[in-house]
Write a structure and sequence with these properties.
Layout (H helix, E strand, L loop, with lengths): L1 E7 L2 E12 L12 H5 L7 E10 L4 E15 L2 E13 L18 E11 L4 E8 L4 E7 L13
């Protein structure tokens, strides 16, 4: 789970609240792994699914996005990810705000890409994200499913 604050030229003050669900890391490719790669499979699980909700009070903008992240760089606790997917806007009320990335018709969606820089500190992982549409999000990830190491001993 990730949460943060988003801002952009068409998100008026106050900033939007951003909530995200992040899947567990998985390996995108079906290629066979070498013996060395199989020993350290976690290094090769570099893709995650991201479902995002952006809300601007008082119900000016509601946005959902479905993205796939892929890690480009991992250096110790720092990672650099690229993502892409589709973003849907739900703009209630008659006072439709002009969103420059949407067509002037009734289409309230577009394809989006972005870059995400994240510092992994275990349960908490702060991040900074800038989308190709100019939406900037700063927040943190909470990992509630930390791997637990269980040692089994023979009697």
């Amino acid at each position: 789970m990730e949460c943060g604050l988003s801002t952009n030229t068409f998100f008026r003050s106050p900033a939007s609240v951003n909530l995200r669900y992040i899947s567990s890391a998985f390996r995108w490719s079906e290629e066979d792994l070498s013996e060395e790669e199989e020993k350290h499979i976690e290094k090769f699980k570099n893709s995650r699914l991201m479902v995002e909700l952006i809300y601007t009070p008082p119900l000016k903008v509601v946005c959902t996005a479905f993205n796939v992240q892929s890690r480009l760089l991992r250096y110790k606790r720092l990672s650099f990810n690229i993502y892409g997917g589709v973003k849907f806007f739900f703009v209630p009320g008659p006072d439709f705000i002009d969103i420059p990335y949407l067509s002037k018709g009734k289409d309230l969606w577009y394809m989006n890409m972005g870059l995400l820089l994240q510092l992994n500190l275990g349960i908490v992982a702060p991040f900074a994200d800038i989308g190709g549409d100019g939406i900037i999000t700063v927040g943190t990830e909470f990992n509630f499913c930390r791997k637990r190491i269980i040692k089994l001993t023979r009697p």
